[in-house]
């Protein structure tokens, strides 16, 4: 499966690392796994690291199909925020597209698009305060 994640209980952060070619079907499997993962505490933050993605196999219309599961994840686990980290231009561009889709689907989603983990550390202080 090209989407792997690690959960840090101390910080209540899920670090997600898709790799290879990423499609919406793999993203849907990932969301279902998070929803069913009993170790993840409510109010967690999702951090998506795109550095290992070689190709994105979806359009913006196809990406919109993930929001039903994303909303279920928010409802079940009270997902606090999603942080996309895209250091390369292609990764950053897709992250911005996903941010726009969040705005279209639910303007209340807390979504951040960043270039690196240093920026993420600053965001975490704001999210958890």
What are the SSEs and their pairings?
Elements: E1 3-8, E2 13-18, E3 20-22, H1 24-36, E4 45-49, E5 53-56, H2 60-63, H3 67-77, E6 81-85, H4 89-105, E7 111-114, H5 117-128
Parallel strand pairs: 2-4, 3-5, 4-6, 6-7
Antiparallel strand pairs: 1-2
Helix pairs in contact: 1-3
Task: Give a short summary of the structure.
The chain has about 130 residues and is of the alpha/beta class. The protein is built from five helices and seven strands.
Task: Characterise this structure.
- Strand 6, helix 4 (89-105) and strand 7 form a beta-alpha-beta unit.
- This protein has a single domain, classed as Transcription Regulator spoIIAA (2-Layer Sandwich), CATH 3.30.750.
- Strands 1-2-4-6-7 form a 5-stranded mixed sheet, with helices on both faces.
- It contains 5 helices and 7 strands.
- The model has no long low-confidence stretch (mean pLDDT 95).
- The chain is α/β, with parallel strands linked by helices.
**What is the H-and-E element order?**
EEEHEEHHEHEH
| Count of helix runs | 5
| Percentage of residues in helical conformation | 40-55%
Shape, please? Answer: globular
Spatial strand sequence of the major β-sheet: 1-2-4-6-7
Brief descriptors of the model:
single chain; 129 residues; alpha/beta; Transcription Regulator spoIIAA; 7 strands
């Amino acid at each position: 499966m090209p989407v792997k994640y690690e959960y840090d209980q101390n910080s209540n952060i899920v670090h997600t690392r898709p790799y290879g070619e990423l499609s919406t079907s793999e993203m849907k499997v990932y969301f279902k796994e998070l929803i069913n993962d009993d170790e993840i505490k409510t109010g967690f933050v999702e951090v998506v690291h795109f550095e290992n993605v070689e190709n994105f196999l979806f359009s913006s219309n196809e990406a919109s199909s993930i929001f039903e599961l994303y909303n279920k994840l928010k409802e079940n686990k009270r997902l606090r925020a999603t942080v996309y980290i895209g250091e390369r231009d292609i990764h950053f561009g897709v992250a911005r597209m996903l941010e726009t889709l969040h705005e279209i689907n639910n303007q209340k989603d807390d979504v951040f698009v960043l270039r690196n983990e240093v920026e993420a550390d600053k965001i975490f202080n704001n999210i958890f305060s």
